[in-house]
Amino acid sequence: MSGTESLNPPREVWVFLLIRCPVENPKYFAPLGMWPRVLQVVRDGWACPPGVIVQPGEAITDAAHRVADALGIKLPKAAALLAVDQQPAIAGQQDEELAFVFDGGSAAEDAFADLPRDQVEVEWSAVENLERVALVHALRTRLLAVEPPVLVEGMPKSNRGRNG
């Protein structure tokens, strides 16, 4: 391994959209029942938010609009950034990942029923079933109108202790 490889490990920069489905029954008052469900794309049995890898030279906001176009939705010109999440590299298993989560708005449960199923499968996931913790923080940012968190491995940096 050369010195430049160790100084510049591979990094993927992703842009994801957080698209939420309104609560079905607002009279139901269980804490998790009040959270909207989140749109996920299913690939190889693994669910994640709709997203793309940012192309070299592409602005992250342009990548967010590219995701929206693929889903057939329109984002506001200045889509709101809800979270930034950094996942460190794991030697031999995964490259470093930097993910930006933008607000994709809300949609009805059947809004994506016409997407070609041979290209993409989508599902609405309850907050407790979200595998990516950053989505929970992004949803919290959107619903509670708090500052977008900077996350490391899905957790707010300030909660990682002195060495984090």
What does this structure look like?
- 18% of the residues lie in helices and 32% in strands.
- The protein is an alpha+beta fold.
- Strands 1, 2, 3, 4, 5, 6, 7, 8 and 9 form a nine-stranded mixed sheet that branches.
Question: Quick recap of the structure?
Answer:
The protein has 164 residues and is an alpha+beta fold. It contains 3 helices and 9 strands; from the N terminus they run H-E-E-E-E-H-E-E-E-H-E-E.
Protein structure class = alpha+beta
**Could you describe the largest sheet, including whether it forms a barrel?**
9 strands, mixed
Number of strands: 9
Helix count equals 3
Query: What amount of the residues lies in strands?
Result: 25-35%
List its traits.
single chain; about 160 residues; alpha+beta; 9-stranded mixed sheet; 3 helices; globular; disordered N terminus
Topology of this structure?
Layout: H1 3-7, E1 11-21, E2 37-43, E3 46-48, E4 51-53, H2 60-71, E5 81-87, E6 96-106, E7 121-125, H3 133-144, E8 150-152, E9 155-156
Parallel strand pairs: 1-6, 5-8
Antiparallel strand pairs: 1-2, 1-4, 2-3, 2-7, 5-6, 8-9
